[in-house]
């Protein structure tokens, strides 16, 4: 039965005409009509159950570390492992393009830019196990390292002291990713290349980037006798090569983005940028990316990260240069070296870290030459182009000499397309530093925190990385039970089978026990056993008197119940010592011994 109601038009519910796709404005109106009920709170029932359940090994409360299930530390706790990360370090490549006397005009411009310290302070060697172990403790939500006693991070003060590059000035901003056509135009305009050369180079890189080697080959031969335009082209190429090898070293390991070339358009304005803040934001992002289990490489300026570790963990990793003077960047204070320990060994060493093992204020002697920058108290977002990362000094107050309190929740960084708002926020940084009330009181002793801090931190953090069932078992109690010469050399560790970390004397003790068994001794104690007496001509010092670094010389005489085998060569009759008399007759044990050495002879 037909209804008497008139057919509805398109503005109503139905229409006899063909249905058309709604416009964008209509879709927005429909979305607004649907949003009648308010959204659920951030922590609904399911999320509350997830927070209470927590993650294996922590955190118990996942209100802060929400993405921890994707973290490499979560996989390690479940039994999976990851090899040490491959490192992108260009410290050696900087030596391939030197600014000598013939290129003094280029060096003067680089020095005015504030980036000249990067030429000399870059480390040529980076330790894969050490940097990988610290990367496993980085948490993206807080942009801090989570250690057994609390959080630590690289601050703007660290960047200024270690590298001596500017941390104040204009923020490095890009409105959108650089397209290939725009990158081609930049290379032609600012480097003087031809359109064909620029296109061929970016085709080889398969991105709007150029190879570091290409920059050296085309511009390193320009000297002061060249034209002014050529010198400007070479200066921009050198600065692009410099930041590509240091501040913005990405995981391509061979190229640098052309987008940074725009920063060198006006060479007189290069020193007006906050290069240190951009470097720190880029380093934060590289650490965040490397916390994912499937990632196998770490980029960023590794000299900054490695020197920061040397500064704050003196007793564990550092090797100072005694010729260092405080007027130079702190990165030059250290002699970089490869840590001989394995990644598993370093995990356990970091798991045993205590507050007293950390140098919380390492730049006290450096303040006369480099005063503390007030911008280090800035609380907000720092960025490098389209990379935006939060910066939370309130989470690491102990690094500023203040008592650590329970910090507020970290804020998520805004979208990169809001670059204008972030730039304005940064330009007024004096309005966004921590107030005195948020900074708290000065520490009475290094590493001091409020009484309730550790209980809160234990609930929201993953303090221990190495699972208990994969540890070496070398505990403090076991160490105290060792002889004095063993306990004093506990730092000399070796990785024995299965990646397990054990003391070197345990290894020699095991060999001594094996020697005792072969010698027929009844002493099979678990401690360092003394071998059974050997002939006077083969005396072996006991482990108690042997130096730790001197391996013993084991001589295995035949067992007491076994007669020695007959001599293979007749003795010299002219020898003043008579040969030993042969055995009276072959015994059963002698027959077995001969059969084991000469199988087809009875």
Helices and strands in order:
Elements: H1 24-34, H2 45-53, H3 72-77, E1 86-87, H4 104-113, H5 117-121, H6 128-135, E2 138-139, E3 144-147, E4 150-152, H7 156-163, H8 180-191, H9 195-205, E5 209-211, H10 212-219, H11 228-245, E6 255-257, H12 275-290, E7 297-298, H13 302-312, H14 314-317, H15 343-351, E8 380-384, E9 387-391, H16 419-427, H17 436-439, H18 453-460, H19 476-480, H20 484-487, E10 493-495, E11 501-503, H21 504-518, H22 588-597
Parallel strand pairs: 1-7
Antiparallel strand pairs: 2-3, 3-4, 5-6, 8-9, 10-11
Keywords:
mainly alpha; globular; 602 residues; 6% strand; 11 strands; two-stranded parallel sheet
Protein architecture, described:
The structure is a single chain. This protein has 602 residues and is mainly alpha-helical. The chain has a three-stranded antiparallel sheet, with no helix packed on it. Strand 2 and strand 3 form a beta hairpin. Helices cover 33% and strands 6% of the residues. Helix 8 crosses helix 9. It is globular and about 75 Å long. The termini are far apart. The N terminus is likely disordered.
What's the short story on this structure?
With 602 residues, the protein is mainly alpha-helical. The chain has helices at 24-34, 45-53, 72-77, 104-113, 117-121, 128-135, 156-163, 180-191, 195-205, 212-219, 228-245, 275-290, 302-312, 314-317, 343-351, 419-427, 436-439, 453-460, 476-480, 484-487, 504-518, 588-597; strands at 86-87, 138-139, 144-147, 150-152, 209-211, 255-257, 297-298, 380-384, 387-391, 493-495, 501-503.
């Amino acid at each position: 039965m037909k209804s008497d109601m008139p057919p509805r038009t398109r503005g109503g519910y139905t229409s006899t005409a063909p249905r058309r796709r709604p416009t964008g404005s209509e879709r927005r109106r429909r979305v607004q009509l649907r949003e009648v009920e308010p959204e659920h709170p951030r922590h609904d029932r399911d999320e509350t159950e997830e927070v209470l359940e927590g993650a294996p090994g922590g955190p118990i409360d996942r209100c802060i570390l929400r993405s921890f299930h994707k973290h490499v530390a979560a996989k390690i706790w479940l039994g999976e492992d990851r090899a040490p990360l491959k490192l992108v370090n260009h410290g050696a490549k900087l030596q391939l393009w030197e600014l000598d006397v013939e290129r003094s005009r280029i060096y003067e411009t680089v020095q005015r830019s504030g980036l000249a310290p990067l030429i000399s302070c870059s480390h040529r060697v980076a330790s894969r196990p050490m940097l990988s172990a610290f990367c496993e403790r980085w948490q993206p939500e807080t942009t801090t390292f989570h250690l057994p006693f609390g959080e630590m991070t690289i601050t703007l003060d660290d960047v200024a002291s270690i590298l001596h590059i500017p941390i104040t000035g204009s923020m490095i901003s890009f409105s959108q990713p650089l397209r290939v056509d725009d990158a081609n135009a930049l290379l032609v305009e600012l480097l003087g290349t031809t359109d064909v050369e620029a296109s061929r180079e970016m085709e080889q890189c398969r991105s709007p980037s150029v190879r570091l080697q290409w920059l050296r080959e085309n511009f390193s031969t320009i000297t002061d006798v060249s034209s002014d335009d050529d010198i400007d082209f070479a200066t921009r190429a050198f600065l692009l090569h410099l930041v590509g090898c240091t501040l913005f070293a990405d995981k391509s390991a061979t190229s640098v983005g052309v987008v940074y070339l725009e920063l060198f358009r006006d060479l007189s304005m290069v020193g007006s940028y906050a290069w240190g803040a951009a470097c720190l934001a880029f380093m934060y992002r590289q650490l965040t990316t490397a916390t994912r289990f499937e990632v196998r490489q770490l980029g960023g300026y590794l000299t900054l990260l490695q020197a920061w570790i040397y500064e704050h963990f003196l007793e564990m990793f550092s090797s100072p240069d005694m010729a260092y003077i405080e007027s130079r960047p702190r990165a030059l204070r250290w002699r970089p070296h490869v840590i001989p320990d394995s990644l598993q060994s370093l995990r356990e060493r970091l798991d045993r870290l205590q507050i007293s093992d950390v140098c919380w204020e390492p730049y006290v002697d450096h303040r006369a030459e480099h005063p503390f920058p007030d911008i280090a108290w800035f609380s907000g977002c720092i960025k490098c182009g389209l990379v935006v990362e939060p910066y939370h000094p309130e989470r690491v107050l102990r690094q500023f000499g203040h008592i650590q309190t329970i910090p507020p929740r970290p804020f998520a960084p805004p979208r990169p397309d809001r670059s204008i708002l972030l730039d304005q926020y940064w330009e007024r940084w004096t309005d966004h530093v921590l107030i005195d009330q948020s900074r708290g009181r000065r520490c009475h002793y290094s590493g001091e925190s409020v009484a309730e801090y550790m209980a809160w931190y234990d609930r929201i953090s993953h303090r221990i990385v190495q699972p208990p069932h994969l540890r070496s078992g070398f505990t403090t109690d076991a160490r105290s039970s060792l002889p004095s010469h063993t306990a004093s050399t506990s730092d000399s560790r070796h990785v024995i089978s299965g990646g397990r970390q054990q003391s070197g004397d345990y290894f020699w003790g095991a060999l001594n026990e094996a020697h005792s068994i072969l010698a027929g001794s009844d002493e099979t104690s678990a401690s360092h056993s003394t071998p059974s007496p050997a002939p006077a001509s083969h005396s072996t010092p006991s482990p108690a008197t042997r130096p730790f670094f001197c391996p013993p010389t084991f001589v295995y005489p035949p067992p007491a119940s076994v007669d020695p085998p007959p001599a293979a060569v007749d003795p010299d009759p002219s020898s003043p010592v008579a040969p030993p008399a042969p055995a009276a007759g072959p015994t059963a044990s002698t027959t077995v011994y001969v059969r084991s050495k000469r199988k087809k002879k009875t």
